[in-house]
Amino acid sequence: MSIFRKIILLFSASLLLMLAIGYQVDAMYTQRTEALVTQQYLDDARKLYGLLATTEPEALAAALPSMGFEAVESTQATGAEPLLERPHSFGDMRILKTRDGTYLLAIRYMETALLLRDTALDGTLQGRWLPHLLVGLDIVLLVMIFLVIIAMLAPLGHLAAKMRAFAEGDYDSRSDVPGRDEIGAVAETYNHLAQRLQDTIVAREALLRDIGHELRTPIARGMFAAEKLPDSDEKKLLRRCFSELESMTSELLEVEKLSVTGELDLQTIRAETLILQALSKMMIDDEEKVSIALDEDFDLEGDPLYLSIALKNLIDNALKYATAYPVTVTAGAGRICVRNRGKPLREPVAKALAPFRRGVHSRRQKGFGLGLSILAKVLERHALPLSHRYEEGWHCFCIDFSPAQRQKGSETG
């Protein structure tokens, strides 16, 4: 759940709680006020009944203001809510609450009817608006806090979008979030970091181009010089070494380019086509060293160039460390597997995938220990899992192209 949704949920819960508190406070205050008004009007009714029984109507009308009563028009009682009704021997008494919150006392004594308001209650009811005001101010403050927090966090979306653009290859992506607060400091730090990374990436790309150019020239000269030598085992060895250096240089440049840009030319190809492309990149002195078994050809999605390099390195690694031939390449059930006879691994496969990592007992083998590292980088970019098992003297490395395993590899990566 995003931070904005969390804030909205917390604000909504706080607002509902505040409204509930306001409603409860209003109910309690109204109940308390009506209890005071009822008690006051009951006392007033007893006094008035005494006066009505002993005083003439004219004298009573003159005495009411001095007693704190104000006569009101009968129209003000229209639609009023009765709070209390009590019968009397010669009439009745009612306490009414009008629509505007005014409390009235209605008394009928024989032929005389009075509708009065006790002005002495004004002081008692004067502060009844204060709790409502405080609750209202609290709600307004809560809304203002919510708006301020949203305004403060709004730049985070812009900053995250710029970071995603940078991660996707837009190295000129910078944040323009103003301010001297913590979020502004984060944006400034990101801009500084992005600039440093961009400079590093540009320098790395330039270095790779220079290395590729500088290495290819002496390799080509070495291959040309080796061709002038008389045929011998040393000439074959030199030719093979230079060829491997050229192939390894090209592969490293391609894989490093993939690491920098992350761009893949995704295509749908057949497993058989991928295997043949991988074998065409290899220099196998004896074709009988590799056996192909297509149990089931299937479609797979990926970059043919990088996948063929990865599979080529996996097969080449199996050839280097095989104790017997042939090495078997199989395809079926959405997987391409490479099997070879060999000694058990002395360390986990994950360590073998690190660059320049070679086994203690494999120092005499050809290569630079980069093949499986290149394989790991390509499979990581494709979100493809590599599995290994060792049974009865056979190593079996499998690349699983099935959708379920691909999704699992993507989540793990």
Automatic annotation (TrEMBL):
<keyword id="KW-1003">Cell membrane</keyword>
<keyword id="KW-0597">Phosphoprotein</keyword>
<feature type="domain" description="HAMP">
    <location>
        <begin position="150"/>
        <end position="202"/>
    </location>
</feature>
<keyword id="KW-0067">ATP-binding</keyword>
<dbReference type="InterPro" id="IPR047994">
    <property type="entry name" value="ArsS-like"/>
</dbReference>
<dbReference type="InterPro" id="IPR050980">
    <property type="entry name" value="2C_sensor_his_kinase"/>
</dbReference>
<dbReference type="Pfam" id="PF00672">
    <property type="entry name" value="HAMP"/>
</dbReference>
<dbReference type="InterPro" id="IPR036890">
    <property type="entry name" value="HATPase_C_sf"/>
</dbReference>
<dbReference type="Pfam" id="PF02518">
    <property type="entry name" value="HATPase_c"/>
</dbReference>
<dbReference type="InterPro" id="IPR003661">
    <property type="entry name" value="HisK_dim/P_dom"/>
</dbReference>
<keyword id="KW-0418">Kinase</keyword>
<dbReference type="InterPro" id="IPR005467">
    <property type="entry name" value="His_kinase_dom"/>
</dbReference>
<dbReference type="InterPro" id="IPR036097">
    <property type="entry name" value="HisK_dim/P_sf"/>
</dbReference>
<keyword id="KW-0547">Nucleotide-binding</keyword>
<feature type="domain" description="Histidine kinase">
    <location>
        <begin position="210"/>
        <end position="405"/>
    </location>
</feature>
<keyword id="KW-0808">Transferase</keyword>
<keyword id="KW-1133">Transmembrane helix</keyword>
<keyword id="KW-0472">Membrane</keyword>
<dbReference type="InterPro" id="IPR003594">
    <property type="entry name" value="HATPase_dom"/>
</dbReference>
<protein>
    <recommendedName>
        <fullName>histidine kinase</fullName>
        <ecNumber>2.7.13.3</ecNumber>
    </recommendedName>
</protein>
<feature type="transmembrane region" description="Helical">
    <location>
        <begin position="129"/>
        <end position="154"/>
    </location>
</feature>
<keyword id="KW-0812">Transmembrane</keyword>
<dbReference type="GO" id="GO:0016301">
    <property type="term" value="F:kinase activity"/>
</dbReference>
<dbReference type="InterPro" id="IPR003660">
    <property type="entry name" value="HAMP_dom"/>
</dbReference>
